[in-house]
Amino acid sequence: MTIDRRTFLDLAAAGVVASALRPPPSGAGADRPRFKAVAFDAFPIFDPRPVSARAEMLFPGRGAELINAWRTRQFEYQWLHSLAGRYSDFWNTTEEGLVYAARQLRLELTSEKRAQLMQPYIGLTSWPDVPAALTSLKSSGMRLAFLSNMTREMLDAGIRASKLEGLFEHVLSTDRVRTHKPDPRAYQLALDAFGLEREEILFVAFAGWDAAGAKWFGYPTFWVNRLDAPPEELGVRPDGVGRDLNDLQAFVAASR
After folding, report:
1. Were both Cys, which of 126, 150, 235, 248 would link to 154 (CB 3.0–4.6 Å)?
2. Which of 143, 154, 254, 132 is nearest to 190 (CA)?
3. Nearest Cα residue to 238 out of 256, 222, 249
4. Dihedrals φ, ψ of 46, to 5°?
5. 4, 10, 41, 247: which is the annotated catalytic residue?
6. Is the separation of the CB atoms in 231 and 208 below 8 Å?
C-alpha cells in the first residue's frame, strides 16, 4: 500500500499510521478487507454521561467522586463474582457497586435516589458520532455486533433509544455464558456468532482493560478512548486508538 504525504498526515492525525503501513495478509488482494466484522463493547456506542449528570444532581459537588468510586466497585464486583463462580449480572453488580460506593463516601442513598441513579442505564442513547459511523461501516459490508457485559435487556433498550435497529447482526451479552469480560469465554461469543477467524473480527473497546483482554484473547483491537485515559500497564497495546467512531472508520479503511 503506497501513501502520499498528505494521506500520511491525515492518518497520523487519526492515530492509525501503523496499521495503514502494515502489509495485507499473505495472498490477500489489495481490495480485500482485513476485517470482516466488528464487535463493540457497549460504551463506545452508548453515552454514559447521563448517569454522571444524575449523580451530580442528587449529590451536588460530589457527583464525580461518587461516579469514580461506583465505577471501580461496579467492575470489581463483576470480576469477583466471575472468579468465585457466583455469577451476578451487570445490572445487579452495578447496583451493588452503587450501594457500596455511597456507604464508602458516607452519602445518604435513599431507595428513591438509588432508583434514580440506576434508571439512566435503561435506554442510554448513543454518542453523537455513532449513527452515521455505524451506518457507513455496515454499508461497506462490515458485519456488526455488540459484545458486552450489559444484559440483553439493557442492550436492546439502548438500541431502541438510539434508533440503531437493524444495524447489529448480533447482540451478545456475556449473560449467555454467565461470566464477564475479560474471561476468554466472554470473548469467544463473537467467534461463535460470526463463524469467523479471530483476526477477521475487530474488537472495539471503551475501557483500557477491555482492550487488553481482547488482545490477550487474540482479537485485533481498537480502543475508543473517549475519556482520554492512559493505557493500562498489562503488557499489550491495542492495534489502534482514537477518540470516537470517526477514528475507528479511518482505522478500518486504512487496513483494507
Report:
1. 150
2. 143
3. 222
4. -95, 135
5. 41
6. yes
d(CA 136, CA 73): 36
| Residue extent(s) of CATH 3.40.50.1000 domains in the chain | 5-46+124-254
Catalytic site residue 31?
no
pLDDT in tens, 61-106: 999 999 999 999 999 999 999 999 999 999 999 999 999 999 999 9
Q: Is the pLDDT of residue 21 over 80?
A: no
Measured between alpha carbons, how far is 96 from 100 in angstroms, rounded to an integer?
6
Section 226-251 average pLDDT: 96
- Nearest CA to 118 out of 82, 81, 74 is that of 74
Superfamily holding 5-46+124-254: HAD superfamily/HAD-like (3.40.50.1000)
Query: CB–CB of 186/211 below 8 Å?
Result: no
Q: What is the mean pLDDT of residues 196-212?
A: 97
